Amino acid sequence: MVDEGGVTRGAEALALSQSAVTHQLQTLARGVGQPLLEPSRRRLALTPAGELMYECAGRALSVVNETGEMLQELVGLTRGTVRVVGDSTIGIYVLPDALAAFHRLHPQIRLTLEVVNRSQVRESLLVGSADIGVAGKLWEDDLLRNEPFLENELVCVSAPDHPLVAKEPVRLADLLEGPLLLREPGSGTRESAEAILRQAGLEPAPAMQLASNGALKRMVAGGLGVSILSTYAVRLELESGHLHQLQVEGLPVKRAWHMIWSRDRSLSPAVQAFREHLRGQDWRGALAEPLGSE
Description:
D-Maltodextrin-Binding Protein, domain 2, two-stranded parallel sheet, 19% strand
């Protein structure tokens, strides 16, 4: 009305009758407790209260319009954030390739990756510090949802000149005399290795445990023992000849990595797009090219 210069023109712009606009102005004035228009017939003039209301309404409309534009950007994936948390093996050897491919598709989306012990993935999702998590072995948890998306093959590795190489194929029980070296408690790889041994009636008794794939591989390559690891973690060392894939009865064993998210939190369009991206196949070609070793 103010922008149009009068009640009549304002009513026309709003596609309302003049009486309807006048009634709404009177209702608003009663609610404020102050007159909004000066009593002048010659021109439309606002009282101090009217000027304040006009200024505040302008700011409110600006925020509404800006919010609408931002929501459109979110839906159109030109704005947003995806916070990913992954256990150490997939966080180091797989997720960087998935995130890089997603970034090429949606460069405006801000991406973060936190690599943690598997036991910390659940906590990050429940406290809201991450939007989506990735881990192998799952928890029995009504607070989280999950979906498998990538196969994870576990193999036994040794130094090329380890005594067990000459005895291939060997039994799972022989690995305990390797001696057996494993990841630290709480690691998904550790739990998978223990499950493999226990299913064969063996109680895992690692001679050494390490909180790093890189340190563990160097121990094995140095002849200090054997270990059970993901093929993604040892691909470079197997290709270079620093490690040997030991032929063991019952191995390799295939597991699955899962994407995980909170049941109680809504996923933004960007997070939903990343989840759909993980389901796809296009980004997986880069996994065949090992770039380095942790």
